[in-house]
Write a structure and sequence with these properties.
Arc Repressor Mutant, subunit A, SH3 type barrels, 4 domains
């Protein structure tokens, strides 16, 4: 039975590597008879894999698209590439893709051999993201932290970790994890803090050394509509940073294409829109508004208008031509050197020699 199962997995792996396999070639690869191959194909069909067969002398098999995604079989290199791709997608600003990527990454890492997990960690640590928006975003979250938290939430397993609070103090936390939430450009963990006997949200970029305890727990009732609402309520109760509102002289669709992933854009008219955002500092909003490439008016806060004037003045000075030095200053009259010394009478050259009558050239 074990041999049959391993052979069936090998058959599935081969079907995923090529669009079409001739039956005879496929049986040769597996070192089985065509009759055994047909039985193995039937087993895969019973498991939900849509395998199409073509009869005849040149007949063969191919794995087709079905109504649901069946389990896939990947080799070592494909598993590493898949994990790295999911790590990158987990940091993506594409709406809705990050949460799904974390869940998929947790499933892959859970079954990945230790040797492959070390390769993924090394490649992830030594790879620098090249996207500009990634560099300008909030501090990156360790993918290992994301996957550990995702697994703990799924398995209802208590975890311990070190956390740096908003006051800069570090403390150990013992938490019953509930959900991961991506809000804006940050990841949060929502959980019940056993040391403080209350629900809390934690920024994952401030969290380090998460470790599962092996202790399961019964999920508690969250005092909010959902985890995202709980995180929003916590942020609203502790206001920080700047609430920015700007009127942009451009259609809402055009502005959304440029910076819509980081801000809220609402149309005012066909050619104007309102842009609102919350930011810890003003540098990124200024750069983002510059990317729009349109005129805009600052509604609030006044600090944004002040910083824009400062930036504008410095940028203007950077492009101003050097001032013309103008004509050289007049040095004034030269000082009088005084009377020149008398050189005395000039020597008499004597009578000049008479050259005689001047003759014109004879034209002949």
């Amino acid at each position: 039975m074990a041999n049959t199962s391993s052979r069936t997995l090998r058959l599935l792996s081969l079907l995923q590597t090529r669009r079409y396999w001739p039956g005879e070639e496929l049986a040769t690869q597996l070192r089985i008879s065509p009759r055994t191959l047909r039985r193995d194909v039937d087993r895969l069909r019973e498991l939900g894999y849509p395998i199409q067969a073509q009869r005849g002398v040149a007949g063969g098999y191919q794995l087709a698209a079905g109504t649901a995604l069946p389990p896939l079989v990947v080799d070592d290199e494909e598993a590493v590439a898949l994990a790295l791709g999911l790590q990158s997608a987990a940091q993506s600003a594409v709406e809705g893709i990050a949460d799904s990527s974390v869940r998929a990454l947790a499933k892959v890492v859970q079954v990945m051999p230790a040797r492959l997990r070390r390769r993924v960690q090394a490649l992830g640590a030594m790879t620098v993201p090249s996207s500009w928006e990634g560099a300008a975003a909030a501090p990156a979250v360790d993918p290992g932290v994301l996957t550990t938290m995702a697994l703990a939430c799924r398995d209802t397993e208590r975890i311990r970790f070190s956390y740096i609070g908003a006051n800069g103090q570090q403390a150990d936390r013992h938490v019953e994890p509930h959900r991961l939430v991506q809000l804006g450009r940050r990841w949060y963990l929502v959980g019940y803090d056993l040391n403080r006997n209350g629900w809390r949200s934690y920024r994952l970029d401030r969290l380090a050394g998460p470790r599962a305890t092996g202790t399961r727990f019964r999920p508690r009732e969250l005092p909010a509509a959902d985890a995202a609402a709980f995180v929003r309520a916590g942020i609203d109760s502790v206001r920080y940073g700047y609430d920015i509102e700007v009127i942009v002289e451009a259609p809402a669709e055009a502005v959304s294409e440029r910076i819509g992933r980081w801000v809220t854009v609402s149309p005012v008219s066909a050619a104007r829109c309102r842009v609102t955002m919350t930011a810890d500092a003003l540098e990124w909003p200024i750069m983002g508004l510059g990317l729009v490439g349109a005129e805009f008016e600052v509604i609030s806060p006044p600090e944004l208008a002040d910083q824009l004037r400062d930036w504008g003045a410095r940028f203007s000075r950077a492009t101003r031509p050097s001032p013309d030095p103008g004509p050289s200053p007049d040095p004034g009259p030269s000082p009088d050197p005084g009377p020149s010394p008398d050189p005395g009478p000039s020597p008499d050259p004597g009578p000049s020699q008479d050259p005689g009558p001047r003759r014109s050239a004879d034209p002949g």
